[in-house]
Design goal:
Elements: E1 3-8, E2 15-20, E3 26-29, H1 32-37, E4 41-44, E5 49-53, E6 58-61, E7 68-73, E8 81-86, E9 91-97, H2 106-110, E10 114-117
């Protein structure tokens, strides 16, 4: 069931809210950018995401196919969300960094289902052999 979560960067300049059903699972990946940023992702459709503050406090990083906007707060460097359009995952999307959700208890974080993806080897539907570092 969807719940509205509030989230933010570390310094609080970029704030958002998103309607997410965390029981449907989240993802961690070992591709180059997810691994280096320790991204814990919940993917949602654009209409489930609302930027509340900080439009001018963001910077955008793109690489490779340049179809995903990796958003960072230009003050504290936190990566609270990203957005893009990738046909293979259903078109336009937002990815919320679950670790940036503010109204979550430790118990809620601990109970979120996680799917692991071997992005390093382009085996997105399979988990890497070792996941404990993700």
């Amino acid at each position: 069931m969807n719940k509205t979560y509030q989230g933010s960067c570390h310094c609080g300049k970029v704030r958002f809210e998103a309607d997410i059903d965390l029981s449907q699972g989240t993802g961690r990946c070992n591709c180059s950018i997810c691994l280096k940023n320790r991204l814990w992702a919940a993917i949602l459709k654009p209409d489930a995401f609302r930027l509340l503050t900080g439009k001018d406090d963001q910077t955008d990083y793109q690489f490779g196919s340049r179809n995903v906007h990796h958003i960072f707060c230009k003050h504290c460097g936190t990566r609270p969300f990203e957005h893009g359009d990738v046909e293979e995952i259903g078109g336009a999307f937002y990815t919320v960094n679950v670790a940036c959700l503010d109204n979550m208890s430790d118990e809620e974080f601990a109970n979120i289902p996680v799917h692991y993806s071997d992005g390093r080897n382009n085996q997105w539907e399979s988990a890497p052999a070792v996941t404990s570092y993700l």
